[in-house]
Design goal:
Keywords: Fatty acid metabolism, Lipid metabolism, Lyase, Transit peptide. With 263 residues, the chain is an alpha/beta fold. The protein is 49% helix and 16% strand. Helix 1 links the parallel strand 2 and strand 3.
Amino acid sequence: MTASAEPLVHRYNENGITTLMLNQPERRNSLSMAMLEALSTELEFLAEDTSTRVVVLAARGNVFCAGHDLKEVRGELGNDEFQLALFNQCSKVMQQIVNLPRPVIARVAGVATAAGCQLVASCDLAVAADTARFATPGVNIGLFCSTPMVALSRNVSRKHAMEMLLTGEMIGALKAEKIGLVNRVVDEQVLDETVYSLARTIAGKSCHTLKIGKEAFYKQLEMPLSDAYEYTSKVMADNLKADDAGEGICAFLEKRHPDWKDS
């Protein structure tokens, strides 16, 4: 198989952990329209795939994702319909990640910039190699990172988000961990070990419970405090009706491992 015939996104599943691998390192895994459409297709599949318990989003090469394909963007200057469709498609993919009923972990090695940084921020969790770097550098080329700002500002404090957006400067992995963009920073030699250990831990939980919790987490974030408590109280009461809640409580009281039915 030639490089041109390879899929833009590789998907493989092992023991309930599905890895989506961005597979265009020669183009810095940029989010071209084709790459975004390929990602969207994979996420649509995973939304219905009962064999998947956790998703790992990774990338081949030394760049996780360089954001939009600027050659493509430049080639379509003046084509307002394409430009709007491109950013709408990118926004769709980010929302698919958030709305996916399975947890998504970003495995970040190398650079994640602009919409690539947005991709990391959109994942539920992120583990980075200590050599990883992040930036929203659109301001440097006269194109403010307005859509990356949505995910970034929902993950880090306003002042840290604004600093990244206004300066366009690269930050290291440790700074990204400090401001909440990533969960953990590890030596690149143990990146896979750390990511998949975390994935296995999560995969050992009830899928039904994780689905309920992930959906509730993002919904309550946008609510006033009293509304959030009212909503999550109902979520917990409904959650108690699930088979896995009953099994989990019994298993805890009986000091044994639960036998999840994912229902």
